[in-house]
Design a protein that fits this description.
- It is a single chain.
- β2, α4 and β3 (81-85) form a beta-alpha-beta unit.
- α5 (91-97) crosses α12, α8 packs across α9 and α8 (153-164) packs across α11 (204-219).
- The N and C termini lie far apart (46 Å).
- It is globular, with a radius of gyration of 21 Å.
- The longest helix has 16 residues, at 204-219.
- The protein has a 7-stranded mixed beta sheet with strand order 3-2-1-4-5-9-8, with helices on both faces.
- 44% of the residues lie in helices and 15% in strands.
- The chain is of the alpha/beta class.
- The structure holds S-adenosylmethionine (SAM).
């Protein structure tokens, strides 16, 4: 039991880079906006405060707890705020069903919320000992326990290497398989203990963070969902509409950077010195050649902001 209903919406999660999000995202007060990662509704609330009488915002989140918290926080904006429990990879279908196309702005503030991370029962954190879950959408069948206890050793090592960039991926995968052959690994604490049996004390925290991040990404197909969402977000944006994405680790940020650059390119490289490049019509114009990061004061007030990288682009 996560107890979200008892959580004050404002303490659910502190929105990161709030002023920057508003500055890049908002272009028209009468437009339709989608917050694909509603969380506690912090960014959404600030957007709704800026909208005029015909503006609307649709908030998506895979997590039912997040929607409960955001619905209560955003109740004063009824009927301008709408909600949908869904994955942002379905942004095109959802925008179409809700007759929102063309959309004026799309925000993705990636990863887990502080609330999800701090709630031991969600199984995201190695600092607590509870069920190995890590699902953002609890209707989904695949959870962290199924991966840790069910994947073959080589597949586990692949996940740790690809999504955690963990150099000891093979040794950790071997230790997981050895441990689960005795008894299955059911909790975050048990998984952490297996990882700790492989790594030295000096790198313990960093390795644990990488292993947990890798398994979380695999549970929630985070990188695939992000690629699909960016591709489809571009299709639903109005000319002049904006897409703003905040990433918290290099794998996510690389996907955003590459997808934006590709959409903003004016030619496709031929790959051959003598063959000319093929001109293409760009669909995006980059607004942030370099990612925007949080200032010292924000990081001091909200350590989560330290790793945030915001990129924004405009539909042309
Ligand atoms: C960093 S939090 C967003 C916080 C929010 N901006 C706020 O101000 O409170 C990320 C949220 O996105 C949700 N999420 C992550 N990946 C998702 C996906 N693929 N589809 C829908 N929601 C997702 C998580 O459940 C989480 O609630």
């Amino acid at each position: 039991m996560s107890g979200t209903a008892r959580v004050e919406a404002s303490s659910y999660h502190t929105p990161v880079l709030l002023h920057e999000v508003l500055a890049y995202l908002l272009t028209r007060a009468d437009g339709a906006y989608i917050d694909g990662t509603l969380g506690g509704g912090g960014h959404a609330e600030a957007v709704l405060q800026q909208l005029g009488p015909t503006g609307r915002l649709l908030g998506l989140d895979a997590d039912a707890d997040a929607l409960t918290a955001a619905r209560s926080r955003l109740a004063p904006f009824n009927p301008h705020a709408e909600f949908c429990q869904s994955n942002f990879r379905d942004i095109h279908r959802i925008a179409e069903e809700r007759r929102m196309i063309p959309v004026q702005g799309i925000l993705l503030d990636l990863g887990v919320s502080s609330h999800q991370f701090d709630d031991p029962s969600r199984g995201f954190s190695f600092r607590a000992d509870d069920r190995l879950d890590m699902r953002m959408d609890q209707r989904q069948a695949l959870d962290a326990a199924a991966i840790v206890n069910g994947y073959e050793e080589s597949a586990l090592a692949d996940v740790l290497w690809r999504y955690g960039e963990e150099r000891q991926s093979r040794a950790i995968a071997r230790a997981i398989v050895r441990s689960r052959s005795r008894t299955s690994i059911g909790t975050t604490g048990e998984l952490a203990a297996v990882v700790e049996s492989v790594v030295g004390d000096r790198f313990r925290m960093k390795v644990l963070a990488r292993v947990f991040q890798a398994i979380r990404i695999e549970v929630n197909s985070e990188l695939d969902n992000l690629r699909i969402a960016i591709r489809d977000a571009i299709k639903v944006l109005a000319p002049g509409g904006r897409i703003v994405i905040i990433a918290y680790h290099s794998l996510e940020d690389r996907i955003v950077k590459d997808a934006f650059r590709e959409a903003a390119a004016t030619a496709v490289k031929s790959g051959h010195l003598l063959a000319p490049d093929t001109p293409v019509v760009p669909t995006l114009r980059l607004l942030t050649p370099k990612p925007v990061t949080a200032g010292e004061a924000e990081v001091a007030a909200n350590p989560r902001a330290r790793s945030a990288k915001l990129r924004a682009a405009e539909r042309v």
